Amino acid sequence: MVNVSRRTVLTSALAAGAGAVLAPHVASAAPAAAATALTLTGHDPVDLRWLEGGTPGALAAGATWGVPWARGALAPDQSFALTTASGEPAPVQSWPTGWWPDGSVKWTAHAVSEAAPRAETYRLAPGRPASPATAVTVRERGNQVVVDTGAIQVTFARNGKKIVKSIRRGDDVVAAAGRLVVSRQDKADTDDPQNLRYESFDGTVEDVTVEQSGPVRAVIKVEGKHAKGAREWLPFVLRFSLYAGSDGVRLVHTFMFDGDEDKDFIRAIGVKFSVPMRGELYDRHVRLAGADGGVLAEAVKGITGLRRDPGQAVRTAQVEGRALPDPATWDTRVTDRLHWIPDWGDYSLSQLTAHGFEIRKRTGTGHSWIRVDAGERAAGLAYVGTPSGGLAFGMRNFWQLHPTELEISGAAGDEAEATVWMWSPRAEAMDVRFYHDGMGQDTYAEQLDALEVTYEDYEPGFGTPYGVARTTELMFWALDATPTAQRFAELAEANSAPPLLMSGPEHMSSAGVFGSWSPVDRSTPAKAQLEDRLDAIHGYHVAQQEQRSWYGFWDYGDVMHSYDGDRHQWRYDVGGYAWDNSELSTDMWLWYHFLRTGDATAFRFAEAMTRHTGEVDVYHLGRWKGLGTRHNVLHWGDSAKQVRISNANYRRFYYFLTADERVGDLLHELVDSDRTYLVLNATRKIDGSTGEYDPDPSALPFGKTTDWGAVAGAWLTEWERGGDPKARERLLASARSIAALPNGWAQGETTYDLETAEFSSGAEPSVSVGSLGGVFGLIEVMTELLDLVEEPEVEARWVEFCRLYNATRDEQAEVTGEHWGNLNLRQSYSRATAYAAVRLEDHALAARAWQELRTGHAGYPDDHDWGTRRIEPPAVLRPVDEASFSTNASAMYGLATIQCLALVGDRL
């Protein structure tokens, strides 16, 4: 078969685009009707490599990834075969996650198990998949669901507090009573409280869904709430992934905060398993992963380092985690006195900051903890068990998401408890209260005046965390023996950075996904200069995360907004200049950088941002469900709640590249986010509305650029994924209605009809254009939409908007009746000019786009200082690098340069 690429950049799509028509809604099962009309071109094999390169020593139970395909290449029911580079078959499970409008498959997801042949590279091709030696199976019976991978059997309960009833290897229970635990207190530790009241809650199952059932991968979704007595709170969503032949279980854990921030201070939140302990105390082992592959190996009853030597063979066996020789072979001076050796049944590895962990142990409750060792950053994996097996348990991003802890208790008894604390009980209780008292900002006038100095849009009652969420990834391995130090280090590495297969930038670009971008190109000095600059701004922000310690449970993944050169510090404490919260499409810039480079560091950086911004910066419950929060000192602190932050355009990259079901949930949540404008007047401070908000659903104040671009991304993604056909209908109806306005996207005084998803205005042309309108995903979503559909009127009006934004006032007035005012962010809109140049085949516009980029209005001009300066103590707390970069300008420059290179790179 021939690899027919529809396009590498949008330029070559112009001729083909005229023939693209919308197909009827494609159901997620298999759009057979659409597929039968296709003339499929087929596709050559696609080369895959591990994201970090090389061959990983272990997988996180398995690996799941996404691959794009050119339009018209493959049918949606196409099967796939995976082989190593040497041709050895690797069992793979495949399913479609996205479709082109003609019904051909656009994105597929694939899963391989830990048991699959391991190699540095693989080839994925249309064909018949190899079957695993033992397929994973799912049985639903009564009040439980049983998943059998061939290596382990995991039983999930459909109700109650024991979410995982047991994990077995054959007849042996390795772990049981898997449950969620939360505790709270009613006052903050930092307030020096008296008479604290504590409560503990258990996760209670409300619903269990089998989302996949093999043959390579099974996924079990569990939903519920934490409960004690009559109170139920902190809703959770759990997804357990299990793979054929693997003894690992991956858990994606999400909880939503729905407490009272003034009374509900979470002391600890974790996942706990009971681990049966068999055999002698000297054959019970503990393993804890430190930093850089380090492993602490100990036993509950240690027989090394004693005054009397039991024998080298005995000592070596215990250190290596093997069963000790018959005690009859030991020195009797030890065996006769075993009862005098303490039994260390409790261990704790706590990571309370990003810069230090501590390991402690004790003989049991009621006795002091003894310090074992310490380090900087632990890998986040522990093990408790015996030579005949035990449980390895851990948390990804362990030190980045501090304060965390791994705890083993009761290992000297019949049953140990293994707990992953996502918020350690040894830390101060979680405090999510707003950071100031309002400072007298009781009226809109006062709030707007304060905005002028701190850039913070404050309003009483709006800085609430009610409805925000956090997702954490955990791993559990039910091992058949105490792992060697090398094997445990491999598992710890897989836990920290789960190996992921990925196709390269050239393939993804040739498939024509995600709009206007192209792989890195240094073929000319001018292009090489731009590539160097893109690397410089990206590398600077990656380095700043470490230098400024942008870590912590609620913070990890985000970056800061603006810099304070006087203090040599990001403005972490200045209102709206602190956390970025996706302002001006930072997420999108980072994902395009990865797509172009294929760089692992770029992927992990963007991945962490997606995990953060999609959960913490967005409301998932309550009256503002579906809205995100503008940049602030606290991620939920600003009163501007907007769809431009919850923006599906920022999350869809990660979903299609990894098939992550949790991010899929987030995308689906946003399909109806336009309905939030029934409960919140986003323009209340502009129009001075202080009374009861009673909007007309047929005439909502819903913006046709910033707002619509975000919701259009949700509709586009839902349509691509084969969801509700209404998403496609609303997407097209709204786009057509904007194009029908007298001045299209530039028209002023428009309203939105929630039922029809159509915009309207007066019959007379007017102009209202804001600089932020196109920079929250609107340009990118329109690029993708117009490549999917044949809508000449929509295209003409959009191209007109793109051409005129940076045009002269006379050119604007000639078309729309008046000029567009003093517009900002002109460098950012150079990519709009480039888009118009391609659509209009206008070389002068292409040259204008490059001139706009190089001039650098509200960004980085050609003569900008692209270097960094080292600032040393005592001017700063510790040595840091400083540069003339801001996150907004970097995101805008990055997106503009990437798209200009893809669209009009030949005119550079």
UniProtKB/TrEMBL annotation:
<feature type="domain" description="PcRGLX/YetA-like central beta-sandwich">
    <location>
        <begin position="136"/>
        <end position="492"/>
    </location>
</feature>
<dbReference type="InterPro" id="IPR006311">
    <property type="entry name" value="TAT_signal"/>
</dbReference>
<dbReference type="InterPro" id="IPR048331">
    <property type="entry name" value="PcRGLX/YetA_3rd"/>
</dbReference>
<dbReference type="InterPro" id="IPR045793">
    <property type="entry name" value="PcRGLX/YetA-like"/>
</dbReference>
<dbReference type="InterPro" id="IPR048330">
    <property type="entry name" value="PcRGLX/YetA_2nd"/>
</dbReference>
<feature type="signal peptide">
    <location>
        <begin position="1"/>
        <end position="29"/>
    </location>
</feature>
<feature type="domain" description="PcRGLX/YetA-like N-terminal RIFT barrel">
    <location>
        <begin position="45"/>
        <end position="126"/>
    </location>
</feature>
<protein>
    <recommendedName>
        <fullName>Tat pathway signal sequence domain protein</fullName>
    </recommendedName>
</protein>
<dbReference type="Pfam" id="PF21346">
    <property type="entry name" value="PcRGLX_3rd"/>
</dbReference>
<dbReference type="InterPro" id="IPR048329">
    <property type="entry name" value="PcRGLX_1st"/>
</dbReference>
<dbReference type="Pfam" id="PF19501">
    <property type="entry name" value="PcRGLX_1st"/>
</dbReference>
<feature type="domain" description="PcRGLX/YetA-like C-terminal alpha/alpha toroid">
    <location>
        <begin position="498"/>
        <end position="907"/>
    </location>
</feature>
<dbReference type="Pfam" id="PF21345">
    <property type="entry name" value="PcRGLX_2nd"/>
</dbReference>
<keyword id="KW-0732">Signal</keyword>
